[in-house]
Amino acid sequence: MIYGYIRVSSDKQTVENQRFEIKRFCKDKETQVGGWIEETVSGTQQYSKRALGTLLRDVKNGDIIICSEISRLGRSVFMIMEILNICLTKGCQVWTIKDNYRLGDDIQSKVLAFAFGLAAEIERQLISQRTKEALARKKADGIVLGRPKGVKTKEEKFKLFPLKEAISLDLRSGMSQRKIAKKYGIDKSTLNRFIHRFLNSPVRF
Is residue 130 domain-resident? Predict the structure, then answer.
């Protein structure tokens, strides 16, 4: 299966230019796209949350993904390496038109797949190490990490806050917390914490 992948960053951009490039490329190769994936989303967003993520889960050995250029896959080297590594591991070829990449089942591509995977793993380790070092420096400087003690979240931030009056009325009418939780489709422990904090009501199950 040949997939044409098109991504634009905003509604002001058009997918037609990329579609035309892919169609012309396929015509020259005497083949055609069997499925199109088009999306309007920033390349900085994680591919797993994009239509591309669904495509990567579905591709099989022998499939081909064609895009106008490698930057359509993502806007960071790390993300692109991870995407290409997934494709090569699954036996899916990636072809780009402007960059003239042909990543497939040849030995060169397998070497690249190993390099991509290794680079991605190294990058993850570096990010983790930098985070740990930054936290250690803050701790050494006496900076308290996390939410300061005694700081409470505003009432409006609690998802049950809009139901405060209704829950209070149910409690005054003698309804048990079990029934109230079932009535509003919430967990009993969540309801109990909310009541204890905002309503100061005795626990009744």
Answer: no
Which phi and psi angles does 69 have, rounded to 5°? -155, 160
Cβ of 167: how many Cβ atoms within 10 Å?
A: 24
Number of structural domains found in the chain: 2
Asked whether the whole model's pTM tops 0.70, one would answer no
Residue 74 belongs to domain spanning: 2-120
What is the block-wise mean pLDDT of the chain (205 residues), using blocks of 10 residues? Answer: 92 83 94 94 90 95 94 84 87 91 77 71 76 80 63 55 83 86 83 78 45
- Tokens matching residue 152: 């409470």
Whether 75 is covered by a domain: the verdict is yes
> Are residue 42 and residue 112 in the same domain, yes or no?
yes
Interatomic CA distance for residues 204 and 192, integer angstroms? 9
| Exposure on the CB side of residue 145, measured as CA atoms within 13 A | 10
- Residue with structure tokens 């309804």? 175
